[in-house]
């Protein structure tokens, strides 16, 4: 596992002062442009979910990079994938959650029909920074009938302590 994670970490690039001064942006896109890395990504995510979240029936990914993570592993696990989207993108009946960003508020939504009481959900995203996005997703799942097993991010920015208060949180690469 550690060797695979090193290969994945080494291919990602850091971009100081993007998109704003003071942010070191971690670019995950090289994970997807090479088929061997993409397969490796699927392997480490699969191993982590099987170990930490046995019984998972659905992965719920956060727009938009969480969609890439979820789709890299859902079919390997034989589970479904459900998106959480920013407001106004999903049709039909939705469940919504407002959350606070650095400045102001935003809203995330999930389709009401996408989860049932028999679902055991794992939230998946590429990266946790302040944790605001993931905490909103936790609350959103809490207002559905599904059970939340926990949350998985490939990357955690440790000094921001975003995982504090999130139950059963797992991350694989620490920066
Ligand atoms: O822990 P936080 O401080 O909430 O930040 C982490 C979130 O920020 C990024 O998404 P972003 O909102 O940039 O959207 P994107 O995936 O569409 O680029 C990232 O993919 C996480 O979802
Ligand atoms: N430093 C960072 N790199 C990439 N995506 C992010 N989302 C929030 N902080 C980020």
TrEMBL record:
Pfam families for the chain: Pribosyltran (PF00156)
EC number per UniProt: 2.4.2.7
A molecular function (GO) term: adenine phosphoribosyltransferase activity
Record field: catalytic activity: AMP + diphosphate = 5-phospho-alpha-D-ribose 1-diphosphate + adenine
Compartments, record wording: Cytoplasm
Top-level taxon in the UniProt lineage: Eukaryota
Domain Phosphoribosyltransferase, chain residue ranges per copy: 40-155
Cross-referenced CDD domains: PRTases_typeI
A single Gene Ontology CC term: cytoplasm
GO biological process, one term: purine ribonucleoside salvage
Primary enzyme class: transferase
InterPro entries: Ade_phspho_trans (IPR005764), PRTase-like (IPR029057), PRTase_dom (IPR000836), UPRTase/APRTase (IPR050054)
Pathway: Purine metabolism; AMP biosynthesis via salvage pathway; AMP from adenine: step 1/1
NCBIfam families associated with the record: PRK02304.1-5
Family: Belongs to the purine/pyrimidine phosphoribosyltransferase family.
Function of the molecule: Catalyzes a salvage reaction resulting in the formation of AMP, that is energically less costly than de novo synthesis.
Protein name: Adenine phosphoribosyltransferase
Organism: Oikopleura dioica
